[in-house]
Amino acid sequence: MMKKLNLLQKKLGHSFNDETLLVRALTHRSAGSRHNERLEFLGDSILSMVVADALFHRFPKVNEGDMSRMRATLVREKTLAELAREFELGEYLILGPGELKSGGYRRESILADAVEALIGAVYLDTDIERVRELLLSWYDERLNDIQPGVEQKDPKTRLQELLQAKRKPLPTYTVVDVIGEAHNQKFTVHCLVDGLPDPVIGIGTSRRKAEQSAAEHALDTLL
Amino acid sequence: MMKKLNLLQKKLGHSFNDETLLVRALTHRSAGSRHNERLEFLGDSILSMVVADALFHRFPKVNEGDMSRMRATLVREKTLAELAREFELGEYLILGPGELKSGGYRRESILADAVEALIGAVYLDTDIERVRELLLSWYDERLNDIQPGVEQKDPKTRLQELLQAKRKPLPTYTVVDVIGEAHNQKFTVHCLVDGLPDPVIGIGTSRRKAEQSAAEHALDTLL
Predict the structure, then answer these.
(1) C-alpha closest to that of A55 among A146, A170, A128, A187
(2) What class of enzyme is it (chains A, B) (predicted)?
(3) Which of B37, B48, B68 sits opposite A48 (nearest CB)?
(4) B40 touching chain A per CB within 8 A
(5) Residue of B nearest to A66 (CA)
(6) Fewest CB atoms within 10 A around its CB: which of A50, A136, B147, B201?
(7) Average pLDDT value over all residues in chain B
(8) Range with the lowest mean pLDDT among A56-70, B41-55, B97-111, B180-194?
(9) Among A27, A29, A58, A64, which would you mutate to test the B interface (most chain B Cβ atoms within 10 Å of its Cβ)?
(10) How confident is the model at residue B197 (pLDDT cuts 50, 70, 90)?
C-alpha cells in the first residue's frame, strides 16, 4: 500500500508528513468508522475560500454574482471528479463491500468527496498557505480558462437557451424511476428533446441532479 | 468621519492600514458603485473556513452533519446581525437614499452583509492568520457556547417538534403578500399555530425565509 501511495502523492504534488491523514482522506464511510467525512467538511470550506480569493484577485471588475457562479463551476462535483480522475484517485479509494458493488452512479460523488477530503488532509498536514499553493497548481488551467458569463449557467438553463435559440420546443423531464431509502435515493429521469430520437437519461441522488445530468448529456449530444 | 471610524475600529479590534477598505466595507450598493458586495463574497468564504476549522478542532468526535449545522448557526444572517449590533455598525453604514427610507426588514441582511464585507476587508488589509485571530475573538463566546444537537435545527423544524411534543396540530403557513420585482421581492407569510389567537407574521426575501421568520416569532411567543 505505501509504495502505491507514493505514486499518488507524486501525482497530487504533496508528500504527506503524516500518511495516516492521506489514508483517512481516501477512506469512504462504507469502509469503516475512520472515514473521510470530517476531512471533507474541512476541505470543502478551504477550497471555497482559496477559489474565492483567487477569483477576487483575478477579476477585479467582476461583480459578486459572476464570481459566485465561477466559483460554483470550479468547486462543483463534476469538476472535483475530473480532478480525481487526473489523479487516478479511483485506484486508491478505500471502499466498503457495498460501494464496491454499486459502482457507477455514486462514483462521481465519492470521487469528488475524496478530493475535498484530501484538501482537508493536506491542510492538517501543513498549513493554509501550503494548501493554497497546491490548490492553485491543481486549478492552474481552470483558473486561466474561466471567464465570467454564460458558461457558468447550469446544464438545464443552457439546454433551454440552446433550444430557444433554435426556435425549438422546450425539453420535458420525467422521473421514470426512484429506488433506495429516504437518504440514499437514486432518481432516473428521461429528458425528451426535439430532434433527438430517444429520451436522454439522467441519474442522480435527487430529482434536480438527475435532471441536470440528463440536460448535460443532451448538450453533449447536441453540441 | 475619520474620528468616528476610529471608534468603530476599536470596537472591531482592528485598526486598518488602509482605511479605504473599511469605508468600502461599510458602503451598501444603494450608495454608489464602490460598494461592498465583492468584499462580502470574499469575507463570507473566509468566515466559513475559519469557523469550519475551529469546529473541526473543538469537536474531534462530532460528525460532519453536526459540524455543518453548527457552522450554519454561527454564520447565518441572524448571528452576523447580532455581531453588527455589538459593533453598533448601523451607525457607520453608508446607505443610499432608498435604503435609508426602507428601514426595517432589509436592515438585518444589510448589517449581516456588512459584517462579511468587513471580514473581507480585514483579510485584504492583513492576511489570513490575522483575520482568523480577529474572528476567533469575535466568536469567542459563541464558540464556547455552541454544542452539537438540537439548537442547530431551523425554526420551522423546532416549531413542528415543539407542537408534536405537545400533541397539537402542525402549524400552517400561508403567503399573504408578495411585493417588489423579481430579484428584490418581499414575502409576507402568516403562520397559524394552535393556541395562539392571531396568525404570526413573518417577512423575508423568499417564501422560505418568510416562513422561517414566522416560525421563529412563534417560538419566541410559545417558549
Answers:
(1) A146
(2) hydrolase
(3) B48
(4) yes
(5) B38
(6) B147
(7) 90
(8) B97-111
(9) A64
(10) confident
d(CA B177, CA B185) in angstroms, rounded, equals: 10
| Residue-wise pLDDT tens digits, B163-176 | 888 888 889 999 99
* Domains along chain A with CATH numbers: 2-148 (1.10.1520.10), 155-222 (3.30.160.20)
B82 catalytic? Reply is no
Alpha-carbon gap, residue A125 to A18, rounded angstroms: 6
Q: Provide the grid cell at A77.
A: 462535483
- Asked if the C-beta of A37 comes within 8 angstroms of chain B's C-beta atoms, the answer is yes
Task: Report the pLDDT value the prediction gives residue A107, as an integer from 0 to 100.
Answer: 83
Mutate to test the interface with A, among B41, B58, B74, B113 (most CBs of A within 10 A): B41
Residues of chain A with pLDDT under 70: 1-3, 100-106, 150-152
C-alpha cell at A102: 454499486
Residue of B nearest to A61 (CA): B38
B37 touches chain A (CB under 8 A): yes
Backbone angles phi, psi at A182, to 5 degrees: -45, -50
Cell of A99: 460501494
Show which of residues 125-144 on chain A sit within 8 Å of chain B, judged by CB atoms.
Answer: 128-129
First to last CA, chain A: 43
| Interchain pair B64, A128: CB under 8 A | no
Which chain A residue shows the shortest CA-CA distance from B52? Answer: A42
What are the chain A neighbours of B46 within 8 Å (beta carbons)?
49, 52-53
Predicted confidence (pLDDT) per residue in A21-75, tens digit: 999 999 999 898 899 999 999 999 999 999 999 999 999 999 998 999 899 999 9
| Predicted-complex ipTM score | 0.72
pTM of the model: 0.72
Q: Which of these is catalytic: B116, B125, B211, B216? A: B116
Q: Where residue B162 falls among pLDDT bands split at 50, 70, 90?
A: confident
* Euclidean distance between CA atoms A65 and A71, whole angstroms: 10
Decide if A49 touches B, using CB distance below 8 A.
yes
